[in-house]
Amino acid sequence: MADAYILGIESSCDETAAAIVRSGEQVISNVVFSQIATHQPYGGVVPELASREHLRAIVPVVRKALADSGHNYKSVDAVAVTQGPGLAGALLVGISYAKALAFALDKPLIAVNHLEGHIHAVLLEERQKGNDEMHFPVLALVVSGGHTHLYLAKRNQQSWTYHNVGHTRDDAAGEAFDKVAKLLGLGYPGGPIVDKLSVHGNPRAVSFPPSQIKHPDRKDRASGNPNLRFDFSYSGIKTAILRYVETHQMQAAIETRRRNLLSIRQPKLEDYLANCDRQALDLIASFQRAMVEDLVGKTLMAARAYDVATLFVTGGVAANNELRQRFEQDSAMEGLPVYFPSRPLSTDNAAMIAAAAYPKFLLRDFAPLDFSVEAGMALR
Ligand code: KG4
Ligand code: ZN
User: Fold this and answer.
1) How far is CA 370 from CA 78, 250, 360, 361, 373, in A?
2) Is the shortest distance between the CB of 192 and ligand 1 below 6 Å?
3) From the centroid of its chain, how far is CA 298?
4) DSSP code of 168?
5) pLDDT band with cut points at 50, 70 and 90 for residue 357
């Protein structure tokens, strides 16, 4: 089989991205234009602004991905684009552009689920390192700003199927990082800031009750019940932090911190540290520890219940240092191999979209030109 060069396009949230990937196994170019600066003053992604920024960025980002790869529009074999899930207006920009490109160039068009992209980011990089031997079944934790999902992933030749065995009942883990950071006056996006500050606080200073989730459909594994579930919930910890802030009279310090950090164009770690007292640092570290314990604990419980051979942890929150260390430590104790994407491929990118498109390219599973955005797209 000759090599296939796929142009991937991603615009589901606040990153406009394009990449060229060879045969699902080598990143040739990978361009990500982040809109963080646009959304920062609002403390979160503003969907209307995201669509406008995608419109502005899509053409230069695709041109740069082609230029960096040494390819041109004619030399790519297919155009792949994120169909969903994500912000409808943002997805529409990538999809309209990809459709026009595929039509004008007479190339196949491939629609990709964003969550499948996150899972294929792991496979892409493992193949790139020469590791073709994945043992199945795989349990994949996709943990990002919009998702906290557990999938059992299976492969039958080129065809992939996914079975969801857990998801968040309310906030996604990344959303909890972002909301808590905002609540503490740290700005947006919260995950990377909390990650860096946590090592400076005492993670045992504040304890949070573990999230209790009732699973009416959880049955004994011996029954072979396919609905054995491992759900998450993060709205409780956010409320617990809010209550802690109120009962410990932290509001004035938070307001000062918010104002000080807003006045700095691109705050550095020293700026955050200079604006955080011991109490704030301890709260941040304790929050991260609670999140990590919950994510690792539930994922490993699911891994045991489904007797999986391999674990994937992917999505923006998979960039978190403590989460990686903890997964590595705890899965090693269970003899379970765990794989993460590199940090640049953990957060949103288009290389993962081009990689997930490759099996579809081989199966000639092409999208019709009238396919549409699926903002709430499920992965199956
Ligand atoms: O995968 P991603 O780029 O976009 C979505 O599909 O949502 O994930 C973005 C999320 C944000 O919530 C961000 O705060 C979080 O990932 N994130 C992190 C870290 N880096 C990004 N969370 C914890 N620790 C990090 N180092
Ligand atoms: Zn994502």
Assistant:
1) 17, 53, 18, 18, 10
2) yes
3) 18
4) B
5) very high
Amino acid identity of 256? T
pTM for the full predicted model: 0.95
341 lines ligand 1 (CB under 6 A): no
Copy the structure tokens of residue 23: 């045969």
> Residue 187: CB within 6 Å of ligand 1?
no
pLDDT at 2: 87
Which residue has the least CA distance to atom 13 on ligand 1?
191
Q: What is the pLDDT of residue 219?
A: 52
Confidence bin at 223 (pLDDT 50/70/90)? very low
Is residue 131 within 8 A of residue 289, CB to CB? The reply is no
Low-confidence winner among 54-68, 127-141, 202-216 (lowest mean pLDDT): 202-216
Q: What is the pLDDT of residue 216?
A: 59
Contact 30, 373 (CB under 8 A): no
241, 206 contact by CB (below 8 A): no
Going by C-alpha positions, the residue among 231, 230, 247 that lies closest to residue 239 is 247
Say what the pLDDT of residue 211 is.
Answer: 80
Residue 227 banded pLDDT, cuts 50, 70, 90: low
Centroid of ligand 2 to alpha carbon of 1 (angstroms): 31
Q: From the CA of 72, how far away is ligand 1's center (Å)?
A: 32
- Phi-psi bin for 288: left (phi > 0), alpha (psi -120 to 50), beta? alpha
78 Cα to the center of ligand 2, angstroms: 22
Cβ atoms of 308 and 138 within 8 Å: the answer is yes
Cα of 114 to ligand 1 centre, how many Å? 14
Note the residue count of the chain: 380
Question: Can you tell me the distance from the alpha carbon of 228 to that of 223, in angstroms, rounded to the nearest whole number?
Answer: 10
- Three-class SS state of 29: strand
Is the CB of residue 11 below 6 angstroms from any atom belonging to ligand 1?
Answer: no
- Under 8 Å between Cβ of 17 and 349: yes
pLDDT digits (tens, 9 = 90+) for 290-334: 999 999 999 999 999 999 999 999 999 999 999 999 999 999 999
Alpha helix positions (H), 248-320: 251-262, 269-274, 278-305
Please name which of 37, 171, 168, 33 lies closest in space to residue 90, comparing C-alpha atoms: 33
